[in-house]
Amino acid sequence: MGTSNPDDQGRGDPAMAIRDEETDLLIARVEAGDPRAREELLALHRHRLRRMVAARLDDRLAARVDPSDVVQDALLLASSRLDTFLRDRPLPFYPWLHRLATEKVMQVHRHHLGTQSRAVGRETNGLAISERATIGHLFEFLATSQTSPSQRASRVEQKSRIHESLALLSKTDREILVMHYLEDLAFGEIAAVLGITPGAAKVRHFRALERLRPLLDEDSTGVGQ
């Protein structure tokens, strides 16, 4: 078997992963006036945000942009808006950070790629994503779990068809796959980021995999099982 189902990787019920006890405790400390808690709260999700940014940065920016720098800018923005967030609570905390980081990714694409960014950065429910980068990273995740020499040869032959199929998915469906498999987000978190229900996120995830299934060797990938 290849890649295991992300829902089995120790995070429990995906619908409940959005409730992070440590985050809630830190938020309570921030609201109580603890200055150290503010810094700890933002630093808590740094690794997750870096993973998210790396999945979205266009490959053409690899030599010019460090994902960690984008994350730092996003956290500085989050710090400046944290009081407003705590007052209004528009989203759970991490999905809120996720949107701010996506905003920074979009700005980086505009700055470095100029008008080219229109081809790689698009909006899905207010979210800008690098289509070229996410399709490439998602393909690698789905395909590289085929580990035998014959499977690798087959993977090369299937690459263009899988890549094309990913490109034909709706932007929202592709984003759901990216967040679930590349970022290991629970469906509750995905739903909060996209502004849909967890049930809708699960259904769209299932249907997207069904469209890709004929091109994937289920016995070796384990994706969607």
Quickly describe the structure.
Helix content is 67%, strand content 4%. The protein is mainly alpha-helical and 225 residues long.
Write a structural description.
The chain is mainly alpha-helical and 225 residues long. The protein has 12 helices and 2 strands; from the N terminus they run ααααααββαααααα. It has helices at 21-31, 35-44, 46-56, 67-88, 93-113, 117-120, 131-143, 149-168, 171-182, 187-194, 198-212, 218-221, and strands at 121-124, 127-130. Strands 1-2 form a two-stranded antiparallel sheet. α5 crosses α10 (187-194), α7 packs antiparallel against α8 (149-168) and α9 packs across α11 (198-212). It is globular, with a radius of gyration of 18 Å. The model is unreliable at 1-17, 115-129 and 218-222 (pLDDT under 50).
